[in-house]
Amino acid sequence: MATALTPQQELATKAFLETVNVSRGRRRIGPVSWSTAVKFLLARKFDVTRAVALYEQHEITRLREGLINFDPTADPLCDELKTGKFTILSSRDASGAAIALFTANLHIPQKCSHQTTLQGVVYQLDAALSSPQTQRSGLVFIYDMSDSKYSNFDYDLSQKILTLLKGAYPAKLKKVLIVTAPLWFKAPFRILRLFVREKLRERVYTVSIPQLTQHIPRSSLPPHLGGDLAVDHSAWLKQCHAEVDEEYISAPSTDTAASQLEVMPSVLMNPQIPQHNENLSPQKNNIIGHDRGDINVDIWGEEAGINPPSSASSGFSDDDSLHGDGAAMTIEQIIDYVRERGRIGLVQDYAEIRARPPDGSFNIARLRNNLPKNRYTDVLCFDHSRVLLSQIDGDSCSDYINANFVDGYKQKNAYISTQGPLPKTAGDFWRMVWEQHTLVVVMTTRVTERGRVKCHQYWETDIGGLMTHGFFNVRTTAIETLPDYTISTIELTNLKTDEVRTISHLQFTSWPDYGVPRSALAMLDFLAKVRQEQAAAVAALSDTWAGHPRGPPIVVHCSAGIGRTGTFCTLDICISRLEDIGTADVRGTVEKIRSQRAYSIQMPDQYVFCHLALIEYALSKELVSSADLTGFDNSPEDDSD
Predict the structure, then answer these.
(1) Catalytic residue among 112, 240, 381, 558
(2) Which terminus of the chain faces fewer neighbouring Cβ atoms within 10 Å, N or C?
(3) 631 vs 109, 331, 344, 404, 578, CA distance in Å?
């Protein structure tokens, strides 16, 4: 099925073909097909100049590596394809992207040349790219290193594959997931990451098998990667034979490759390529034929009009993590809005948000074996954003914890919003911290308030104190007590592997028993300290951390994990945006957080507090000289989490 194009996209396709086919005609090569042109244009959002540049680089790479004029039914390529070391799965990820799987332990470098392996890769990628859905939704590349040895690793081949995918292939590379990377892989990985541009580099992640299901649904993964998808590589190869584009298989022989390279035109010098034709390729936004969620991100790491948000810890498309685009206001506008609406008006705004039903299901949280793990029967976690733990002894319920991923500003899954641990879930809590590589835990409640237990004492409050939860020893090695919060340094030891990590635990102790803090300065200082601790911990990891520059998710909890937790996350997001681009959207941020952690911002006065705290932050940083809130109703605060 051909990709349906808008009139503007058709004009862009014609311009691409005119430019490319003139060049091919000079070299006595057949013309490029319409479908091939569309592939390259989709990969560059129908920017003709950049699409032609990609095409040229792609052609050069295939000529240089001998990826033309090959026969998939003849050896050695036929044998290479049958190994199944590289395949395209029959399912897709949640965004519709195709899933390519390279199984490292099936690759024996001594038995197969780079050229043959690369031919097998591009042959299958070409077939996958024949699908319009893959052209639009892109590709996820899984590099499975499970049970692989150093003898299976081919550094030069890995470099060539990355070089091909980073900017010489017409596929939107959504992310690269390196599964179960062994310790010896760290050194070459640090070097390999240098071969991809920074924004794509942020989409290259090392994950465990349990973490893989956070990126790709279980139904789309084979059993050995934690899923239930039956893989039929033979059926896929038959599909390849039926669908693969013959354009490069029947291209000129490699004997003429050198001469073809010598006469390859330069897109930068070709006067026929339209450079600034608004009808063909809008240079500011590049939005032709794409949903709004794709306008800011160029998958190859190049800017498209404005600086794209950086990728997230999860590696998903970044735009989803940009909170509050719809009604963002400058700080001056926020002050005017708060003054005009007053406390009653803001409470009404919150009532509108709260009246909306939860945007998701709670099926896993309601399973009989999981119900006792929930602190409150009416505070459950969404299925779609829940944090999955690794399963223990095949127990399907052992992967449950009452915790959800929440996006930050320009960072997917920046936080894990969770309930305060129960005695029976403290081991799961520390297992989550370990498996998510968390460096900082934020606690916004005291263990006991007003005679009620709000959270289990899951760490020692004395220096040198040691407790064991599940498979982990938790030792407190340092404590710093400040007027409004306490910082504990925790040594977390995995008893299965004897590996030791350092965790910063920051507990905010000045939230009053009733309501919200009357002054936000203490909370703002606490938030700044959390950022400082996270940044220092990420810097200490150096090159061993391959994820988002801001680091792995910060675990945030209160008692239920929705009230004070939601307030903390909302403030952090709004302040980050205000610092970055000078605007914020409290309502939009709260709505986004509630779509990931149900019922976040539990009480109306927490919603009001977020507005007032943001204004107080602006005053403290002299972003505004004054804030006239005359007439704002200072009614007593409600009780809250």
Answers:
(1) 558
(2) N
(3) 75, 19, 11, 39, 25
Q: What's the confidence (pLDDT) of residue 334?
A: 95
Active-site residue flag, 558: yes
Phi/psi for 20 (5° steps) reads: -70, -45
CA angle 444, 602, 407 (to 5 degrees): 70
Summarize pLDDT for 201-255 with one digit per residue, the tens.
667 788 888 888 888 998 999 999 988 899 999 999 999 888 765 555 544 443 4
The domain segmentation of the chain, as residue ranges, is 7-67+253-294, 77-243, 329-620
Choose between 544 and 116: higher pLDDT.
116
Q: Which residues are CB-contacts of 31 (< 8 A; sequence separation ≥ 6)? A: 17, 21, 24, 25
Per-residue pLDDT of 481-510, as tens digits, reads 999 999 999 999 999 989 999 999 999 999
Buried-state track 335-358, b at ≥16 Cβ within 10 A, e below 16: bebbbebbbebbbebbeeeeeeee
Residue 571 CA, chain-centre distance (Å), reads 21
Between CA 479 and CA 498 the distance in angstroms is: 24
Q: What CATH code would you report for 77-243?
A: 3.40.525.10
One of 3.10.20.310, 3.90.190.10, 2.40.10.410, 3.90.1230.10 is the CATH number of 329-620, namely 3.90.190.10
Tokens 């049970």 -> residue: 147
* Helix and strand totals (H; E) in the chain: 18, 17
Query: Taking 90 as the threshold, does the pLDDT of residue 554 lie above it?
Result: yes
Higher pLDDT, 410 or 257: 410
Pairing, β 204-207 against β 466-469: unpaired
- What single letter denotes the amino acid at residue 639? D
The 10 Å Cβ neighbour count of residue 278 is 10
- The one-character DSSP state at 576 is H
Q: Is the pLDDT of residue 40 over 90?
A: no
Helix or strand (DSSP H, E) at 429? helix 426-435
Q: 69-95, pLDDT tens digit by residue?
A: 788 888 999 999 999 999 999 999 988
Partners of residue 175 on adjacent β-strands: 140
18: which residues sit within 8 A by CB, 6+ positions away?
272
Angle separating helix axes 34-43 and 48-65, nearest 10 degrees: 110
Asked whether 427 and 398 are in contact (CB, 8 A), the reply is no
Q: Bridge partners of 101?
A: 87, 142
CA–CA gap between residue 128 and residue 90 (Å, rounded): 10
Contact yes or no for 39/4 (Cβ under 8 A): no
CB contact at 8 A, 237 and 51: no
What are φ and ψ of residue 143, in 5° steps? -110, 100
Coil vs helix vs strand at 560: coil
Residues 599-625 pLDDT 10s: 999 999 999 999 999 999 999 999 999
Instruction: Please state, in angstroms and rounded to a whole number, the distance separating the CA atoms of residues 285 and 280.
Output: 12
CA distance 188 to 145: 14
Instruction: Report the 10 Å Cβ neighbour count for 363.
Output: 11
